[in-house]
Amino acid sequence: MAWRLTRQPELAVLIAVSIDLVAALPTWRHAWIAPYAETWQGFAVTDGAAILTLLTITGYSVVSLAFPALVLTNCTVMVTVILTRRANAKLI
Length: 92
What we know:
It is built from 4 helices and no strands. It has about 90 residues and is an all-alpha fold. The longest helix is centred in the C-terminal third of the chain and has 30 residues, at about 60-90.
């Protein structure tokens, strides 16, 4: 839909990635509040998949890099928040 409205693939991808990033915020908040309710391993595996995807891209552009970079960012934040909050909970 964004591509149809903007007629620019780069802008459409950035809009979609921005929407995905905003949609991740409640999950980040939930991981912050209840770190034991989330499993970090799934996010870590997805992090690895995003890294492999970034390493295999041959034509670098906004369109090809935006989504794997978003996944990498999202999953890295989730793993970091979950493990940090769990470690801090044990100290209290």
